[in-house]
Amino acid sequence: MAVVINYKPTPKQALFHASNANEILYGGAAGGGKTKALVMDAFFRCLKYPGTTACIFRRTYQELKDTDIKEANASYPDKLAKYIASDYKFRLVNGSEILFRHCENEGDRFRYSGIEIQFLYFDELTSFEQIIYDFIKTRLRAKKSLGVVPIVRSASNPGNIGHGWVKKMFVDAGPYIQTQETLPFSRKEEEKRRSHLLTSS
Ligand SMILES: Nc1ncnc2c1ncn2[C@@H]1O[C@H](COP(=O)(O)OP(=O)(O)O)[C@@H](O)[C@H]1O
Ligand SMILES: [Mg+2]
To answer: How far, in Å, CA of 116 to CA of 126, rounded?
Structure first.
């Protein structure tokens, strides 16, 4: 029997899923569907590509539990994803995994020194320091056999401690020019500002 995934993206969420930018900031006020978009984006990518790893970061575990993990539990069909509470992750039927992780203090970033991530997500990006974002991005890896290009997808309200650097990186960088080609993630490409700013309102 077919498994029904109960999610009809809004036009903005659909744009978010479809973009081929290396990095995206999905900005906007609370209630715009940003967390839902992150959680579903990780799910669809991991379902499409067996054996991949997505990681969704939030500053604190309590916030993860109250928002991202809660949304995932409500949205991922039981037949396709099983929540492993002891490791704060979902394991999908195809062997892919969606990890939920927090990084509250700058020094905590080193906990993730050994992890390999293909699909990286930050919820409420302005609650993080840039040093954390930059460090965790260095964990993006994709061996050829996985057939994927690593990506970073973030969402945020404006105004938290990281407002300044996030604005500089995504807003002041100017408009994103959509191209058809999909380029592998690299520092070089990052410098070319292949970032995409979306606003939910
Ligand atoms: N496309 C959608 N279809 C149905 N419900 C949605 C959709 N997008 C978001 N929601 C719901 O709307 C509420 C707010 O979304 P959320 O992702 O938490 O917004 P934000 O993170 O921008 O504050 C949540 O209850 C979420 O489940
Ligand atoms: Mg949210």
So the answer is: 23
